[in-house]
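Name: General transcription and DNA repair factor IIH
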Amino acid sequence: MADDSDGEYMENYSDDDLNDHRVHNGPDRDASRLGGRQLAQSHGSNAARKPRDRKKSNRTRAAWEEGKFTWDVPEDEEGNVSLSAFLEAEKRRRLLRDTTPLQRGIIRHLVLVLDMSTAMLEKDLLPNRFRLMIGYAVEFVREYYEQNPISQMGIVMMRQGLAKRISEMSGNPAVLVDRLRELEKDKEPDGDPSLQNALEMCRGELFHAPSHGTREVLIIYGALLSSDPGDIHDTINSLISDRIRVSMVGLAAQVAICAELCSRTNGGNDSCYSVAKDEPHFRELFLAKTTPPATLQAEQSSASLLMMGFPSRTKAEAHFEPKQTKNPAELELRREAAQKDAISLCACHHKPCREGYLCTRCSTKVCRLPAECPACGLTLILSTHLARSYHHLFPLRNWVTVSWSEAHSSSACFSCLTPFPTVPKSREKGRTKDKESEKEKNEGQAATVKTNTDQTKDLAKISESGRYACVVCSNHFCIDCDVFAHEVVHNCPGCQSDTRAAAKAQAHLDAAEVTGDGVTHANGAMIVD
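Structure predicted for General transcription and DNA repair factor IIH:
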C-alpha cells in the first residue's frame, strides 16, 4: 500500500523536476536518478505485479522522504551547497533576541503543568509526545534553576479530567527531577485534560507567593479539548485578579480558549502561546520560558527593600570531652577525629549532614542554598546566585558580522584562539576602497539599537569572514564563542579581559549609554553606583 502511494507521488513529477530539486550525498547520486526513472516506468507498465516481487524491487525513496530541497539549503559564493553555512545561520537565528534592558522579576514562582491525557500517546513527536515532554521537562528544570537560581517551581499534571500535584513549590532542582523520573515510570497518559482544575490548583500553589516575586504558570498542552466542571472564564478572571500569568506550548494545534487564556492573563500579549512544529521547535519554545517575563506597567509598585541573608558554609560542631593526657599532640588528634565524624540535623529536611549553612538571623542550619529559613522565614542565598540572576536585567548585546574589508585586523578568535579563514586576494585588493564605507557602517551598527525587523534580519545574516565583533570592545570572535558568550556566561570575554585604563573608561561610558527609549544599557555587566 505504501509503495503504491509513493509511486503515484513520484509519477506526478517529471524526472528533471524531481532530480533537480533533490540534494544527494556520496557517489550514489547517479544511481538514485536512474532508480527513480525505472520506478516511474515500472509503475505504469507492471501495476498488477505480485506483492512478493514488489518487496524484492529496490525503489528509490520519494523526494519528501530523503534529503533537503535546494531552496532550503544555502549556497556559498561559488554556488556549491554549504551545510556548514546552514548550521551557522541556525545558530545566529537562535542567538538574536531583543537585548533592550527591561524590568523583570528575578524572583520567580512558576508552576509547570503537564498534559497526561491520551493525546500525549500520539507519535507525531518521537518516540511519542509523553516521553519527549518528560525528557524536555527534565532539561527545562535544570536550565530554569541555572538561569534563575533564587526562584521556585512546582509541578502539576492533568489526567483523567483531574489535576494532581506532582511536586510542591521547591528551590531544589534535584527533587523536581526525581519526581519527573518517577512520573515517567509509574504513570501513563489516560483520559482527558481539565484546564480549569489545573488552573485552580495552580492558584492555590501561588496563593502564598510574595508580592515581590512573579506568579507564572507554564502549560504543556497536547489535547484539543478541555473537560472542565464549570465555566473556565470565571477561572480566567480569578487569575487576572491574582496577577498570575499563563503561558502555553501546544503540541497539536491552536485552541481558541488557550489563546484567550494566555492573552488575557498577559495583558494582551499573544506571544505567550505557541504551537510546536517539530521536536527541535518544541525544545526551543520550552527552554525559552527560562527567561523571566517583562514586568507590566500596571504591576509596577513603589520600590521596597527585601531582606536576605548571605550565610557561609560551616561544619557540624563536635562534642569533645578531653581525657587525662599530658601530650598536646594527642589531644589535638582526638579533637580533629571527633570533628571529622560530627554530624547534625538540618532544619529543612531533618536529615543528618556534616556541612550546612547557618541562618544569619537565628543560626538555624539548612543543608543547601537558596532556601528559606524554616524558623524565621529569612531568604538565604549566596552572592553568586544574585549575580547570576542579573544577566536578565542587563543582557549582552548581539554581536555584529565582520566583512572581509575589516577582517584583516584579526587572524584568530580572541577567546578560543581558533584560526580564522584568510582574506581572499580578490577581497584584499578592494579593501582600501571599501574601508571607509565599511567602517562607517560598523560604527552605525554599534551606535544604533536594532529594534525594527529590517535591522534584525541584517544581524541574522552569517558573517562572510567567519568573524563576529563585539560592539563595545571591537574584538573578533568565532560563531562558537558567540553562542557560548550569549547562552552560558552572558558576558563578553573581550570586555572582561581589557585591563587598559582608557579602554576601561570607554567601556564604562558605552555600558552606561542611554538608548532612545531612555533605558540604560550595560552590555551584560552589572553597574554599581
